[in-house]
Amino acid sequence: MAATPIEEAIAARVRELPPERQQEVLDFANFLGSKAKRPRKSMYGLWKDLGISFSEEDIAEARKEVWGNFPRERFFE
Fold first, then answer.
1. What is the pLDDT of residue 76?
2. Distance CA 38, CA 30 (A)
3. Is 77 within a domain?
């Protein structure tokens, strides 16, 4: 299998780096590879077993607390 132009460019650039920087590139490539393969875990039902529940009123009150002092006039002029 022939290398793609991007693979050749990466390899050429990595060859110019000192060994410790080459190791950093390899570590980063491994990180990117492992990140892409991990499926995201669903957050749905995270607190299900703890008996915690939120009502619509609780959520509305929390929103008011968080966004109550937001300077809307700066964005909607």
1. 63
2. 13
3. no
Q: Does 10 map to a domain?
A: yes
- Please list, in sequence order, all residues whose beta carbon lies within 8 angstroms of the beta carbon of residue 22, skipping any fewer than 6 positions away: 14
Looking up tokens 């957050």, which residue turns up? 43
Whole-angstrom Cα distance, residue 49 to residue 34? 30
Containing domain of residue 20, as a range? Answer: 5-37
Query: Is the whole model's pTM more than 0.90, yes or no?
Result: no
- Only one residue has tokens 């060859």, namely 15
Determine how many CB atoms are found less than 10 A away from the CB of residue 25. Answer: 13
Confirm whether 66 is domain-assigned.
no
Run means of pLDDT, 10 residues per run, the chain, 77 residues: 92 96 95 78 77 87 87 68
